[in-house]
């Protein structure tokens, strides 16, 4: 008999803990396609949450919904950030409220230097870290500040994308596959930076295909499976649970 493991006992965190970022009953669609299917979860202030799951599980869609991008359409549920109702906001308002989305394609602006990319992020309030503070965190960006952003290496572009998010006054960093296509030594460097960002009190949601690396960094983990939450618990619970990893993460 093939008995499917039951991880549902882990699903109750969203109902019990006080939240900094809270997603409740969120349903997200691309046109007629029902992608994120009534999910609820909490993120606590200062923690790193790994949002994991197979290809197509709905991770990027969830990040985009929280950031209030034009797509997907969220037609049910609530999203609260530090007592502010994100579900009533457009993306620029969510950004002003403290959401910093770093998309998978990094979106470095062509024709602008590293420094101009950072300055552009600070053209309107709320302004976050100063250029000096950003360059202290990312010395490589300081070395290359006069270089056109799109000519940086993949790792450097990822650093620039994260720095650009921090250049605004954010409360939550949403990172979509920051390790994608990067050599392990560069992943080490970015991971180190994310630990420093955490020490500065910023809350992070990390979507990553490299589940082991993400779990080593994260405090908590949510696993999505076909648009629903299959697991909500600590990162170490996932690392220690072989059947859970095999079932949803293929690791
Ligand atoms: N713009 C879109 N229009 C229609 N369907 C979309 C769109 N973007 C994503 N989808 C669909 O939504 C589902 C979830 O996609 P999503 O990108 O959120 O998954 P994911 O978990 O981030 O996957 P991956 O790890 O492969 O990036 C997929 O079936 C995908 O084909």
Question: How is this structure best described in words?
Answer:
This protein is an alpha/beta fold and 251 residues long. The chain has 2 domains: 17-98 and 171-251, P-loop containing nucleotide triphosphate hydrolases (Rossmann fold, 3-Layer(aba) Sandwich), CATH 3.40.50.300; 107-170, no CATH class. It has 11 helices and 10 strands. The strands form 2 sheets. It has a 6-stranded mixed beta sheet, sandwiched between helices. Strands 2-1-4-5 form a 4-stranded antiparallel beta sheet. Helix 8 links the parallel strand 7 (172-176) and strand 8 (203-207). The chain is globular, with a radius of gyration of 18 Å. The two termini are 23 Å apart. 41% of the residues are buried. It binds adenosine-5'-triphosphate (ATP). The site of adenosine-5'-triphosphate has 13 residues, from strand 2 and helix 2.
């Amino acid at each position: 008999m093939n008995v499917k493991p039951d991880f549902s006992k882990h699903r109750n965190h969203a109902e019990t803990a006080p939240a900094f970022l809270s997603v409740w009953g969120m349903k997200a669609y691309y046109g007629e396609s029902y992608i994120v299917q009534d999910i609820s979860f909490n993120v606590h202030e200062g923690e790193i949450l790994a949002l994991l799951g197979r290809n197509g599980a709905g991770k990027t869609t969830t990040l985009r919904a929280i950031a209030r991008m034009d797509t997907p359409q969220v037609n049910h549920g609530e999203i609260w950030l530090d007592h502010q109702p994100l579900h009533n906001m457009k993306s620029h308002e969510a950004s002003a409220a403290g959401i910093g989305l770093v998309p998978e394609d990094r979106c470095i602006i062509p024709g602008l230097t590293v420094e101009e990319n950072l300055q552009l992020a600070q053209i309107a309030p709320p302004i976050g870290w100063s250029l000096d503070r950003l360059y202290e965190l990312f010395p490589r960006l300081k070395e290359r500040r006069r270089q056109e952003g799109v000519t940086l290496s993949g790792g450097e572009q990822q650093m620039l994308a994260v720095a650009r998010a921090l250049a605004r006054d954010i409360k939550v960093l949403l990172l979509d596959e920051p390790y994608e296509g990067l050599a392990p030594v560069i992943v080490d460097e970015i991971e180190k930076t994310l630990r420093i960002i955490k020490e500065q009190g910023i809350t992070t949601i990390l979507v990553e295909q490299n589940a082991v690396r993400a779990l080593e960094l994260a405090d908590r983990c949510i696993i999505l499976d076909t648009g629903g939450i299959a697991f909500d618990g600590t990162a170490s619970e996932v690392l220690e649970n072989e059947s859970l990893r095999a079932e949803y993460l293929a690791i």
